[in-house]
Amino acid sequence: ATNPTWDLEDSRCFLVVSSNVTEEQNVAAVPIKKAVKTGATLIVIDPRETELTRYATVWLRPKPGSETALIGGMLRVIVDESLDDHEFLAERCEEVKALKDSLWRFDLIQVSALTAIPEARIQAAARLLAGSGPAAFLYGLETLAPDIREDCVRALVNLALVTGNIGKP
């Protein structure tokens, strides 16, 4: 964790990827549920139904092994629709052009076919995340094959950077 657990209460959006938080880190689930009850949004990316999926604003169930492509598709939507945090990227990030150029390979039609998630659902999740304000990213990666975990984490870091959610409470 990069912040104290109770900072989660201040988040306006949560992205939970491949993690059954309520079973593995039940203390972390308490502020998430509390924030959602007071209007925060919750996006869950997990093929499994977990307790948090009942609280989710958007639950995306990608085909196993396609989670990184899904996150790449969300990144592409955010950049294509200019929903990224321009100021944060300009002031605090390097190689932004290279990152944006790398997103061309995440054509939403192809991402939708690969993940079995409709384009509109991917777009909705990306827009919620980008427009929410402070967001928290929680991941366990337990449902991911070991050979894709590193790429998935990199994609999540890029998603946090593009939305300006690195190092914020």
Pattern of helices and strands: EHHEEHHHHHEH
Tell me the total number of β-strands: 4
Low-pLDDT segments:
none
Radius of gyration: 15 Å
Give the overall shape, derived from the CA principal axes: globular
Helix content: 40-55%
Q: Could you tell me the strand content as a percent range? A: 5-15%
Termini separation: 12 Å
Tally of helical segments: 8
**What average pLDDT do the residues reach?**
90
- Oligomer, anyone? single chain
Strand line-up in the sheet with most strands: 3-2-1-4
Describe the largest sheet.
4 strands, parallel
Structural class: alpha/beta
Which key phrases capture this entry?
169 residues, 11% strand, globular, 4 strands, single chain
Can you characterise this structure?
- With 169 residues, the chain is α/β, with parallel strands linked by helices.
- Helix content is 49%, strand content 11%.
- The chain contains eight helices and four strands.
- It has helices spanning 21-24, 26-37, 67-80, 86-92, 96-102, 108-115, 119-131, 146-162; strands at residues 13-17, 41-45, 58-60, 135-139.
- It has a four-stranded parallel beta sheet with strand order 3-2-1-4, sandwiched between helices.
- α3 (67-80) runs antiparallel to α6, α3 crosses α7 and α3 packs parallel to α8 (146-162).
- It is globular, with a radius of gyration of 15 Å.
- The model has no long low-confidence stretch (mean pLDDT 90).
